[in-house]
Structure formats: C-alpha cells, structure tokens
Amino acid sequence: MIWIGPTPGVILHDPQLVREVLSNKFGHFKKPDLPSKFMKLIGQGLSSHEGEKWAVHRKIINHAFLLEKLKVTYEQFNYSDNY
Fold this sequence. Notes:
The chain has 83 residues and is mostly helical.
C-alpha cells in the first residue's frame, strides 16, 4: 500500500493480479481524482475514463494490445535500448 498525499493506493506487481484487475474487475475499482491541471497535461483518454466510456475507448485501441503488435514494440524498444 502506498499513500499519495492523504489518499491510499495499491501497486500490483504480480502479472496475474494485474490481468485480473484490468481485464475482469475494471468496474470494481475507482481511478483517483486527478487535479484539473494534471488532466489538462495528460488529456482525456483511456487513462482518464471509467465505466462505459472507458469500455468504448478500450475497444477502439484494443488492436494495439494484440500479442503480435506487442512483440514488435518490445523488439523496437530492445533495439533502441542497445544504442
């Protein structure tokens, strides 16, 4: 458990728990309320939406998270890290 100011939070390191929360339990957890200045910086998108709005945006970008695309991305990151 961590504290971000007066707000408690939890960080998950176990991949199975992360998958469970992100895939199956997304409606059970509330995202933190972020200050409006921070929201202006990161914009409105998947990271800021919840519920039905999140589901619509996640469906739109779902193809970016396919295993084959992630493998290519990983290879590119790995290549650039070596230089």
